[in-house]
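Lab notebook, bench 4. Still working through the backlog of constructs that have no structural model yet. Next entry is a single chain of 308 residues. Request: give me the C-alpha cells for it.
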Amino acid sequence: MTQYIIRRLWQSVIVVFGVVTVVFFVLQLTGDPVRIMMGENSSEEDIQNVKRQLGLDRPIHEQYITFLSKALRGDFGESVRQRGQPAMGIVLNRYPATLQLAFLALALSVVLATIFGVISAVKRYSALDNVVMFLALIGQSVPNFWLGIMLILLFAVQFGLLPSQGSGDGNIRYLILPMLTLAAPGLARLTRLVRSGMLEIMGQDYVRTARAKGLHDSRVIFGHALKNAAIPLVTVIGLDMGALLGGAVVTEQIFAWPGVGLEVIIAINGRDFPVVQAAVFVVAVSFVLINLIVDLAYTWLDPRVRLS
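Model written out:
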C-alpha cells in the first residue's frame, strides 16, 4: 500500500508539472499582458520598463526556468491586474467558494442519483423507470449555460423566488440555482450508472441467495447490491469532482459566483498570466489528489481489489 501511494504521488507530480508547463507556453501565445495593463496611451518606454520589472523582457526559456523555480515554492508571482497581490493568494481566497459550490453540487447529484437509480432498477421497465431514464437523458443533453439561464429566467425573473447572481455573504438562497445548474449533468449520468450497476448486481447468485434466506428487500438492496455496484460509481464521482472544480467556470460566470472559475475568466480577459497559472496549479493538484482517494476507496468497497 505504501509503495502504491508513493508511486501514485510521483505520477501526480509529473501530471501537475506537465499541466503547468503546457499552460505556461500556451499563455505566452495569447498576447502581451503589459500592453493590455498599461493601455494604448502608454509610451513604449513605460511598457518596456514594466516588462523589465516583471522579468517579461527576457527570453522565453529563462522566463520558464524562473517560473518553475518559483512554482516549486508555490510562488506564481504577483497579479498583473492587482499589483502587489500574490497570484496564489488571490486564487486561494476564491477557492473556498468553488469548493463549497462543487461539493454541494456533487453531494446533491450523488444522493438523488442513488435514490433514483435504485428505484429505477427495482421498478425496471415500469412507467416510473421510463420517466427517470427520460429525465436522465435530458439532463445529459442540456448544456450547463442554457440550463443556468433558463433557471434564472424561471425562478429569478418570472417568479422572483431566488436571487440570480452573487453569493449573498453565505446566504443559502444564492447557492440553489448555481448548485442545481452544476449538479444536473452529474445527476443524470450517475442515475444511469447506478441503475445499470444495480441491474447487473441484482442478477448475481449471492443476491438471490440472500433473498432465499429471507432477508428483507431493503437489506438485500442496500447491504449487498448497492455496495458492490458502487465501485464504478466511485470512479465517476472522483472524475466528476475534478470536473466540477475545473469546469465551474461557466456556471460561476453566469451566476457571478465569486469562485476560482470567475477569477480565471477575468484573469484570461486581462492577460493576468500569474493568476491563471496559479489557478491551473491548484485545480490540477486537487484533481490528482481526488483520484488518489478514489483508488484507495476501492479496497474498502471491494476486498477483492488489492493495490500493489
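Notes after review: The chain has a mean pLDDT of 82. Residues 87-122 form the longest helix (36 residues). Flag for follow-up if needed.
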